[in-house]
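Aim 2 progress update. The chain analyzed this quarter is reproduced below.
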Amino acid sequence: MYPLLRRILFLLPAESAHTVSMTLLRWCCALPPLRILIKKIFQPRDQPVEIWGLRFRHAVGLAAGFDKNACYLREMETLGFSHLEIGTVTPLPQSGNPAPRLFRLPADRALINRMGFNNEGAAVIAERLKAWRKINPHTQLIIGGNIGKNKQTPNELAWKDYLICFEKLHPYVDYFTVNVSSPNTPGLRSLQEPEQLRKILTTLQRSDVQTKHPKPILLKVAPDLEAEAMGEVIDLAQEIGLQGLVLSNTTLTRGGLKTSPKKVAQMGAGGLSGAPLTDRCARWIQFAVRQGKGALPIVASGGIFTEADARKMLTAGASLVQVWTGFVYEGPGIVQKITNRND
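Predicted structure tokens:
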């Protein structure tokens, strides 16, 4: 069924197809009988994961960038995701980069995006999450808040943007992911340098310990770091007592693609995601486990399409996995396909 629907959706520009498909899913889930049917069809198998004092129904979640504004929480819960990251959220709303800014590479089962942190801003998203919590007090869906800085904020003041988002979202999310690794905000990746990173993370930690219910803080890292730089990030994370890493964000590299170089060049700048990152993500997880001696929990995000991909990440040392591009190509049954394996 989904291959036919995907063929139709792929006739549309990628960002338009995302909007259309999510609108259709929202309409379907608005009708209780149909929502119950969808939930039954796509029901995954529970394989609980306990981490950071949180109980995840299973390991499979939705990565940041898919539901930037926390608009599809009910829909993602209906499809069986154990968790999702909303955002990336910035203090002020911003429109992101000009369209077109999302492109498909079907031959590579990949996407290129240069969205640029388009979102409605921390205040609006916090209110939406507050309303969700009120209506769904017993939800099993774990919600992560992926936070970043506004484009116009200079890097030396970036810590203030992260703190604003952190404090506004804190009552309504279960954990945070600090995004300093998107390639689509100029200069953002330089925040991965140890001293810049230390300032941001320790500021959030100081704020966190003053709250009634402290939340886990994770760091999302780029896959394009050199091993020495990645090692420094991991060492810093352990030194300051960070709760975990998300490995990894999109890549700027374009090597080894089946899509013609001319077509890729026409798509322009942006981060590449999808199947080309599967092995690289697994290698970085193995590296992080060795460097951190297995003490730092890791969320795998990159190139996960199948149960075999997820198993590769978990075997490498990840505790959770997140899909995004795999969701686009595999469809709404991806969680069930990964979790309902035959052991």
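DSSP finds 13 helices and 13 strands in the chain. The longest strand covers residues 83-89. These observations will guide the mutagenesis experiments scheduled for the next reporting period.
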